[in-house]
Design brief:
Strand content: 5-15%
Radius of gyration: 18 Å
Number of strands: 8
Distance between the termini: 10 Å
Strand order of the largest sheet: 5-4-1-6-7-8
Length: 223
């Protein structure tokens, strides 16, 4: 496997963003005099976006009265506090340093809107290191469509077959596969308890960024 670049999904793959989502949800409950919910309840539905998290937090459906106001409040609060507790996953900084030392390009392809993604990358000191950041704002169709991965490869001037895309959702694997990249699914991300990354058809599945480092080491040395 000859590689020129590694692209990452953001939430649940490169970064553990759940702590900030959880903090926003719990604050909204507290201000309404309602008891906190289990953090894991929110973490389990992060991949479903704001609607899923608000639904889990307040026990409402998007059709219920007042739901849309809560969703908009959630987004406003999150924009103001989107990089307070967010951090790289354990082992990810070492992986990024290894990629940079090896002369490999790395970047981010996410379904997270640019108004959240860019500030997070800046505040964590990753914006100047990442060679590309593709968000839904940059395309007409988000993952699982291949358009975001295709745009990332075109922006970098790379053949997709020499690019590896890493994600924690079936949508990531489908997007990468249809764009022609190699794919890796991670087990440590925001995966619903009923889902299983081993069934997504990725080229490889890892449980920790250190395993991804080993996989890349073998690929680069031809082992």
């Amino acid at each position: 496997m000859r590689l020129d670049a590694v692209l990452f999904d953001m939430d649940g793959t490169l970064l553990d963003t759940a702590p900030d989502f959880i903090a926003v949800c719990q604050a909204m409950l507290a201000e309404r005099g309602r008891p906190a919910v289990a953090d894991q309840l929110i973490r389990d539905v992060v991949s479903g976006g704001a609607r899923a998290m608000v639904s889990a937090t307040f026990g409402l459906t998007p059709q219920d009265e007042g739901f849309e106001a809560l969703r908009l409040e959630f987004l406003e609060r999150y924009q103001a506090h989107c990089a307070v507790h967010t951090h790289l996953y354990d082992g990810m900084e070492a992986l990024l340093q290894d990629l940079e030392k090896a002369g490999l390009i790395w970047g981010v392809v996410t379904n997270k809107p640019v108004r959240f993604a860019e500030p997070i990358m800046r505040q964590l000191g990753l914006a100047e290191r990442s060679r590309v950041l593709i968000c839904p704002d940059h395309v007409t169709r988000s993952k699982p469509d291949p358009e975001p991965l295709t745009l990332a490869c075109n922006t970098l001037g790379l053949d997709p077959s020499r690019v590896l895309f890493v994600g924690d959702d079936l949508r990531d694997i489908e997007s990468g596969r249809d764009a022609g990249t190699k794919t890796v699914a991670v087990r440590y991300g925001y995966i619903h308890p009923d889902d299983n990354p081993d069934h997504w058809g990725a080229d490889a599945v890892v449980s920790h960024p250190a395993e991804l480092r080993d996989l890349l080491d073998r690929a680069l040395c031809g082992c």
